[in-house]
Amino acid sequence: MAAKKVTFTMPSDLVRRVKRLPAGKRSAFVARAIERELDRLETVARLRKLRGTAGWGKKRFLGWGNLYGLGRGLWEGEDAQAYVKRLRKDRPCPIR
Question: Is there a contact between 2 and 14 (Cβ–Cβ < 8 Å)?
């Protein structure tokens, strides 16, 4: 495995934690911290990529006009108000 030399700045709280460790455990601790940061950056990059897709992009206007004719088959041959009353018959009234 080839080693790649990188330069970075460690946060001050991480520097304090490294100083408290014995000399033999510092490099492994820093390596784990770097791996966690790289994983975090990769996750952030994936979320940014997903942000443009999956409905997160443009806001869509969801109006009542888009629902026109949606429940037509539910109350075919029945008055809409009678259908609603039948649905509400078993529910308790929240306002008394």
Answer: no
